C-alpha cells in the first residue's frame, strides 16, 4: 500500500513569491490534514478535510493561505505571498473512515528568503 | 481547551536500559491518546494509541504506553532501548472536537 505522497520535498523561494504544495493521501482515506511544523515544535493543524469539505480551517491564515480538495482525493495548499515566517515543514496526513490514527507524508520543507 | 505537555526536551538512555518518555494532557471528555515517532527528514509515524480498555497499550517496535486517568498521563515506555530508537517522539491527544493536538516533542538519544 502506497503511503501519503507529497511534492515537492524541498522548496526555496523569495519572500512575496507564491508557492504551492501537493498531497495525495492513502487510497480510501477520506480525511486529509495539512499541518505546519516549525523547527523544534510539534505539528500544528492548518486545515482538515472530510472528503471535499473543509471542516476545520480555524488555524489557516486566510489572508495568504488557501487550500483545496476538489474531488475529495488529492489536495493543494497555497501560500501567496510568502513571508519569511512561513519557513517551516508542511506536512500532509490522512486517516481512514472511522480511523483515529493519522498517516503522514514526508513533508515539504519550505525556506523563504 | 485541550493541551499536551512533554516536559522533557531530551531523554538520554544507554542501550539495553529501559526508557520512558513522559506526556501529560488536558482534555474535556474521554481522551484519545497517541504516540508518533519522527526520524530525520521523514514524516511522523504512528506508534500506538489509547482509545479505551486496558490502560497498558502495546505498539510498534516494542514500545508500550500506560494511560493513567488520575494523573492525566500517557507515558511511552520500552523495556530495553536500542540505538535505532533514537528519534523525535510526539505525544498527541484528540478530544471531543475531533482535533488532534501534538506536544512539542521529546528527542530520545540512545547511547551505545
Please, how many helices of chain A?
0
Fraction of residues in β-strands of chain B = over 45%
C-alpha geometry of chain A: globular
Total beta strands of chain B: 12
Mean pLDDT of chain A: 94
The most extensive interface, with participating residues per chain, is: A-B, 19 and 22 residues
How many β-strand stretches of chain A? Answer: 11
In DSSP terms, counting alpha (H) and pi (I) runs of 4 or more, how many helices of chain B?
A: 0
Helix amount of chain A: under 10%
Distance between the termini of chain A: 37 Å
DSSP strand content of chain A? over 45%
Structural shape of chain B: globular
Give a quick precis of the structure.
The complex is a heterodimer of chains A (113) and B (112). Chain A is an all-beta fold and 113 residues long. In chain A, 0% of the residues lie in helices and 49% in strands.
Verbal overview:
- The complex is a heterodimer of chains A (113) and B (112).
- Chain A has strands at 5-7, 10-13, 19-24, 31-37, 44-50, 53-56, 65-68, 75-79, 88-95, 103-104, 108-112.
- Chain A has 113 residues and is mostly beta strands.
- Helix content of chain A is 0%, strand content 49%.
- Chain A is globular, with a radius of gyration of 13 Å.
- In chain A, strands 2, 4, 5, 6, 9, 10 and 11 form a 7-stranded mixed β-sheet that branches.
- By secondary structure, chain B is mainly β.
- In chain B, 0% of the residues lie in helices and 53% in strands.
- Chain B has no helices and 12 strands.
- Chain B has strands at 3-5, 10-14, 19-21, 24-26, 32-38, 44-50, 56-58, 64-68, 73-78, 87-94, 100-102, 106-111.
- In chain B, the strands form 3 sheets. In chain B, strands 2, 5, 6, 10, 11 and 12 form a 6-stranded mixed β-sheet that branches. Chain B has a 4-stranded antiparallel β-sheet with strand order 3-9-8-7, with no helix packed on it. In chain B, strands 1-4 form a two-stranded antiparallel sheet.
- In chain B, a hairpin with a 5-residue loop joins strand 10 and strand 11 (100-102).
- Chain B is globular.
- The model of chain B has no long low-confidence stretch (mean pLDDT 93).
- The interface between A and B is medium-sized, with 19 and 22 residues.
Amino acid at each position: 500500500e502506497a503511503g501519503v505522497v507529497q511534492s515537492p520535498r524541498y522548496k526555496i523561494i523569495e519572500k512575496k513569491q507564491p508557492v504551492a504544495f501537493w498531497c495525495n493521501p492513502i487510497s480510501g482515506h477520506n480525511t486529509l490534514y495539512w499541518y505546519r511544523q516549525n523547527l523544534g515544535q510539534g505539528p500544528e493543524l492548518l486545515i482538515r478535510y472530510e472528503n471535499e469539505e473543509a471542516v476545520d480551517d480555524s488555524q489557516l491564515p486566510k489572508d495568504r493561505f488557501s487550500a483545496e480538495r476538489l474531488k475529495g482525493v488529492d489536495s493543494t495548499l497555497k501560500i501567496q505571498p510568502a513571508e519569511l515566517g512561513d519557513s517551516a515543514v508542511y506536512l500532509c496526513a490522512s486517516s481512514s473512515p472511522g480511523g483515529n490514527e493519522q498517516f503522514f507524508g514526508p513533508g515539504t520543507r519550505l525556506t523563504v528568503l | 481547551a485541550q493541551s499536551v505537555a512533554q516536559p522533557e526536551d531530551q531523554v538520554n538512555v544507554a542501550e539495553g536500559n529501559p526508557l520512558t518518555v513522559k506526556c501529560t494532557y488536558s482534555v474535556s471528555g474521554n481522551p484519545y491518546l497517541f504516540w508518533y515517532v519522527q526520524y530525520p527528514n521523514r514524516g511522523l509515524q504512528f506508534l500506538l494509541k489509547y482509545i479505551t480498555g486496558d490502560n497498558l497499550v502495546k505498539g510498534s517496535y516494542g514500545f508500550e504506553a500506560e494511560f493513567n486517568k488520575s494523573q492525566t498521563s500517557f507515558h511511552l515506555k520500552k523495556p530495553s532501548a536500542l540505538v535505532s530508537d533514537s528519534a523525535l517522539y510526539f505525544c498527541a491527544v484528540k478530544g471531543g472536537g475531533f482535533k488532534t493536538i501534538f506536544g512539542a516533542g521529546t528527542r530520545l538519544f540512545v547511547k551505545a
